[in-house]
Amino acid sequence: MGVGYNATEALARSTESSLSSDRSRSPGFAVPAALGWLAGGLWVLALPVFLMMLTGSLMVNQPRLYYYGFDHFDISQETGIAPEALRQVARDMITYFNDSETYFTPRVVIGGQERPLFTEREIVHMVDVKALVHKVYWVAGLSLVYLAGYAALHLALRRRRSEVRALLRLALYGGLLTLAILAVLGLWSLVGFGGLFYLFHILSFSNPFWQLDPRQHMLIRLFPEGFFMQATLFIAAATAFEALAIAVLSGRLVRGKRKA
Question: In 3D, which of 61, 55, 93 has the Cα closest to residue 219?
């Protein structure tokens, strides 16, 4: 009886082990793992999106960026608008990007006469620019929600030290991916910014109002292509600093937790 009982118990254990193994290999149990990989991959992709959109949002709202461009490209001399008037236009433009007004219609003094700064075509284009700025805000916000939500759920559902290390590893990969994207865009900007600038407008605007003539339109004289190249490099440099800090810090923490 003792021998039979032991044999039966061993068989039961073997069967249970086999069934558990089969269940772990079945498609129904592979889906959560696949979803986990997908969610983690999206987290890595969301990090560079968030960093670039956040930095772009901050730069758009930084008056000193506009002041620098006006001074660097001698916009006052180019347009006949006094330096302080240009700075006021920059401040008003930033306000416009964040208020509920539909149109941006500043007036300036040129040659002793007050006049509208922009033509109707430029005013319509500024409506599109404002919509684009708000899209950048939304993308930054949504990517932040995903990054924070995934991290919170990941740590709440899997309270193990290895899972913290896995999240830090994702941050490392996201930082490195950001640096790689910025390297490509930076090289493209230095080699042929005109092509990148053109592609940006084609993808960002659904109408031709962005095509302006400096002989007729003041907007393109206030913000020449060189201004946008400088702004792009500033945004890239700031984002690269953020990504490098994330990559270095997360990499060190991963190594530290591995040793612990």
Answer: 93
Q: Report the distance separating Cα 250 and Cα 196, nearest Å.
A: 32
Neighbours of 239 (CB within 10 A): 24
Q: List, in sequence order, every residue forming a beta bridge with 115; answer none if it has no partner.
A: 108
Residues listed for the chain = 260
- How far, in Å, CA of 104 to CA of 27, rounded? 57
> Is position 4 within any domain?
no
HSE, side-chain direction, 13 A CA sphere, residue 131: 11
* CA angle in degrees (0–180, nearest 5) for 116-117-121: 95
Query: How far is the CA of 254 from the CAs of 162, 242, 258, in angstroms?
Result: 10, 18, 6
Q: pTM for the full model? A: 0.82
Contact predicate 124/100, CB 8 Å? no
Q: What domain range includes position 218?
A: 39-74+91-103+119-259
pLDDT digits (tens, 9 = 90+) for 104-124: 999 999 989 999 999 999 999
Which among 84, 96, 95 is positioned nearest to 128, based on CA atoms?
96
Could you write out the DSSP letters of every residue in 141-171? HHHHHHHHHHHHHHHHH--SHHHHHHHHHHH
Please tell me the total count of domains within the chain.
1
Radius of gyration of the chain (CA): 28
